[in-house]
Amino acid sequence: MTVIRTIREAWRSRPTIEGAGVHLNRAFGNQESPRLDPFLLLDDFRSDDPSKYLPGFPWHPHRGIETITYVLQGDVEHGDSMGNRGDIAAGDVQWMTAGSGIVHQEMPKGDAQGSMGGFQLWANLPSSHKMMDPRYREVKRGEIPEVSMESGAKVKVVCGRVNNVQGPVRDIVTDPEYLDVVVPKGARFAHPVKRGHTVFAYVIEGSACFDQGGDPYSRETLVHYGDGDAVSIAAEKAPVRFLLVSGKPIGEPVAWYGPIVMNTAEEIRIAFDEYRKGSFIRHR
Ligand code: FE
């Protein structure tokens, strides 16, 4: 029997200041992350005020995680210790596996109207992959397939599969799915998910009922599902756009300090020690 997942908990993202002074909304972080394993953090950096995002995220290290940046509006200029340089433009995704270590900077630039928008998700790596070679996947807007469902829903498939259309990001350790879903008013979106995987939705705009008979949730709400085989979202009173993300829990101890997430406090100490001494980067 197919079990439709019900909502376990839901909350609003909260204002936070990160990097060199970027005002953003954090959907979840350190505090909530044990419940969202393998995901660690989701930041919503939409803003119409350049003074709130231009300070950016100057050079900083990452180890032990993957960061997934999805830009809706404006550009994020980036550069890293592997020699990559470029812009993540509106509609593009950058899937970065920090692995053993990367030092990079991420500088939001905004569009001609001064608007900036997008999301950064952190996915944890299991101990077996924390020290893997770092890698980058730059996915341009045009490479992300959009599936039109019979119900009228439209789904951009960054990672995972919808109606036999596979997204361009593959072979990720925690078997994640990352979808950008638009459901018109009056329509429903149903989607199978794997039993035992962590599943959450984050409302970009509009509102919808994320389980049967529940209250509608609107912009900047994180909806965390209980277990089951599928989700069903009804846009009863308004259209809705949301991210739908799932992944396989890792189930290991988490030692987290700033941009570095390992399994033990000793591994964190070593990482910062190496960063100070200049031996942090193993792979160029
Ligand atoms: Fe970063």
Describe this structure in words.
By secondary structure, the protein is mainly beta. It has one domain: Jelly Rolls (Sandwich). Helix content is 5%, strand content 48%. The protein is built from one helix and 25 strands. Strands 1, 13, 14, 17, 19, 20, 21 and 23 form an eight-stranded antiparallel beta sheet that branches. A hairpin with a 5-residue loop joins strand 13 (146-148) and strand 14 (154-159). The longest helix is centred in the last third of the chain and has 13 residues, at 265-277. The radius of gyration is 18 Å and the shape is globular. The N and C termini lie far apart (50 Å). The model has no long low-confidence stretch (mean pLDDT 96). It binds fe (iii) ion. Fe (iii) ion binds at residues 57, 60, 62, 67, 104, 106, 259.
The top level CATH class name? Mainly Beta
CATH fold naming: Jelly Rolls
What molecules are bound to this protein?
fe (iii) ion
Strand content: over 45%
Give the overall shape: globular
Tags for this entry?
single chain, mainly beta, Jelly Rolls, seven-stranded antiparallel beta sheet, globular, binds fe (iii) ion
Compact summary:
The chain is mostly beta strands. Helix content is 5%, strand content 48%.
Itemize the secondary structure elements and their pairings.
Blueprint: E1 7-12, E2 14-18, E3 22-28, E4 39-44, E5 57-62, E6 65-73, E7 76-80, E8 85-88, E9 93-97, E10 102-108, E11 117-124, E12 135-139, E13 146-148, E14 154-159, E15 161-162, E16 165-166, E17 177-183, E18 188-192, E19 198-209, E20 216-218, E21 221-225, E22 230-234, E23 240-247, E24 255-257, E25 260-262, H1 265-277
Antiparallel strand pairs: 1-21, 2-3, 3-4, 4-11, 5-10, 6-9, 6-11, 7-8, 7-10, 9-12, 13-14, 14-17, 15-16, 17-23, 18-22, 19-20, 19-21, 19-23, 24-25
The protein binds fe (iii) ion (FE).
Fe (iii) ion binds at residues 57, 60, 62, 67, 104, 106, 259.
